[in-house]
């Protein structure tokens, strides 16, 4: 069993400014600047009615580090972890595209942990979610 633990790759922490469209497997430390609930449906007592009836909660959280900031799409219990002013470690995150701009997200393969408050100040004037990307199809000859 010791070999399995040794085979695990040590996470490489990235900075927000290094995030690019279509990339996955990001691990980063970020401060939460704001959280805005964009979708809340279902009844709190509906969980007994089966998985389809479970309440859904989605929030867009502006997170960042000393290189820039990006919108993080938090789902359900992730929303409770991403409270403004908290510092989080986001593991195995991916970039989703939403209306031509980048959003950071964590699916079932990733993890969010609240950690010690970070000492850096977030660079708020470099918001990667404000950059619009255009889908370009490259013609193959």
TrEMBL record:
Gene3D superfamilies xref list: Nucleic acid-binding proteins
One Pfam family, short name: OB_Ssb-like
InterPro entries with a match to the protein in the record: NA-bd_OB-fold, OB_Ssb-like
Residues of the Single-stranded DNA binding protein Ssb-like OB fold domain: 19-114
PANTHER family reported for this sequence: EXPRESSED PROTEIN (PTHR31472:SF8), OS05G0244600 PROTEIN (PTHR31472)
Protein name, entry field: Single-stranded DNA binding protein Ssb-like OB fold domain-containing protein
Species classification: Eukaryota, Viridiplantae, Streptophyta, Embryophyta, Tracheophyta
